[in-house]
Amino acid sequence: MEKALLAGVCLPGQKLRDINDSLDELSRLAETAGARVEKRIVQNRASIDSACFIGRGKAAEIAALARELGIVSIIFDDELKPVQQKNLEEITGLKIIDRTRLILDIFARRARSKEGILQVERAQLEYYLPRLSKRGLSLDSQAGGIGTRRGPGEKKLEIDQRKIRDRMAFLDREIELISEHRKVLRQKRAQNSQALISIVGYTNAGKSTLLNLLCERGEIYADDKLFATLDPTTRQVKLENGRTVLFTDTVGFINKLPHMLVASFKATLEEISGANCLIHLIDASNPACSAQEETVINVLKELGAQNIPMITVFNKADLLAKNRLERLRGNKAIAISAKTGEGVGALLKAVEKIVTPKLFAHTLSLDHSESALVNKIHSISVVKKQEYDKNRIRLKIECSSEQWSIIQSILGRPKK
Ligand SMILES: Nc1nc2c(ncn2[C@@H]2O[C@H](COP(=O)(O)OP(=O)(O)OP(=O)(O)O)[C@@H](O)[C@H]2O)c(=O)[nH]1
Ligand SMILES: [Mg+2]
């Protein structure tokens, strides 16, 4: 494993505790990418140095220390400007990686679907483009991430500026097609009155674990890793009232989420902005959970999803002290454990309340020649009573106004 040093800056008004929480997270990101963190350094500064991010002297000091400890890369907790990165490389002679690059590399390793791979590549190219030297992108800086193992989303990127621009335009068109396709799927679901519930939250909050629990299949990849999930997964779940709804688990958010990822993951993130209801899952056992909650709310605003009905859910209740759990529940919060299933019934009730449309009672009287339609009516509405007499099949049903229109069109005429 390659050794790395983490570097952060503490500006006036910032709390050292928050900087340390952020470095803890950076450390997990670095480990996920395959590095071993040997040391962290935080510099107190009045402002960011426009040329080197940290002071030039500090950079030289870090380089000397790194050499002594056999460290090969310095990872900065913020996105560096291209010029800062270049200057730091020159001063230290070491690999300079920033938070954005680290996250992009992890995304590239995790991407499995065509959609994920295209979107990651689009974000990577946007990151690399302003970092190209006149000579073109040096292969060094392209291979300059942590480790050498390549994932399916990681490929050798184009090195010519013009070619990169062409490729980005091509990717934009492909992503637009995926986005259109997803839109059609969402419209179809809406026509079938199937509600879409999107599980959102900070990375590692337990979103995939919850979806596994809900669909009782246990096949969705969940792991104690950051960005375990990139591709959205949708599963049908039957609520207690018999209604079938769809739950989607999608990519998690993180503090300082690179803007190019939000932009290029458009197709994936529309599963959130097109949902009927959001479950905001919070890892209540994480000491930084309030800051994480705020980050998620801000990203949701960026996606234009702030007005979708949202249920806030505190997860990992099994790890919480009893008094904390009692306090949460005393405040009427929904606290669950996606691991043990505790509290999940209350969550499903809350979902049911939001997504269940107003139902109306109707009576249908069908001819025996129309008996083939009875199964269809069952699949669309809740059949309360079904009777056969000599001449007719009589049904008492409950359904929404949209479902009633569908039933009427199936029967080919208004039928009372
Ligand atoms: N103790 C405990 N662990 C949990 C619970 N829910 C999830 N976990 C663990 O938390 C880790 C992350 O879970 P995931 O379901 O992969 O989290 P995620 O939100 O999908 O994460 P990303 O896909 O990375 O965004 C895993 O190790 C889970 O086993 C819970 O209720 N209690
Ligand atoms: Mg996941």
Task: Explain what this protein looks like in three dimensions.
The chain is built from 15 helices and 13 strands. The chain is an alpha/beta fold and 416 residues long. It has four domains: 2-103, GTPase HflX, N-terminal domain (Rossmann fold, 3-Layer(aba) Sandwich); 110-173, no CATH class; 193-355, Rossmann fold, CATH 3.40.50; 360-411. The strands form three sheets. Strands 6-7-5-8-9-10 form a six-stranded mixed sheet, with helices on both faces. β12 and β13 form a beta hairpin. The chain starts with a strand and ends in a 5-residue tail after the last helix. Guanosine-5'-triphosphate binds next to α8.
Features:
Rossmann fold, 15 helices, elongated, 13 strands, alpha/beta, 6-stranded mixed β-sheet, 4-stranded parallel β-sheet, 416 residues, binds magnesium ion, binds guanosine-5'-triphosphate
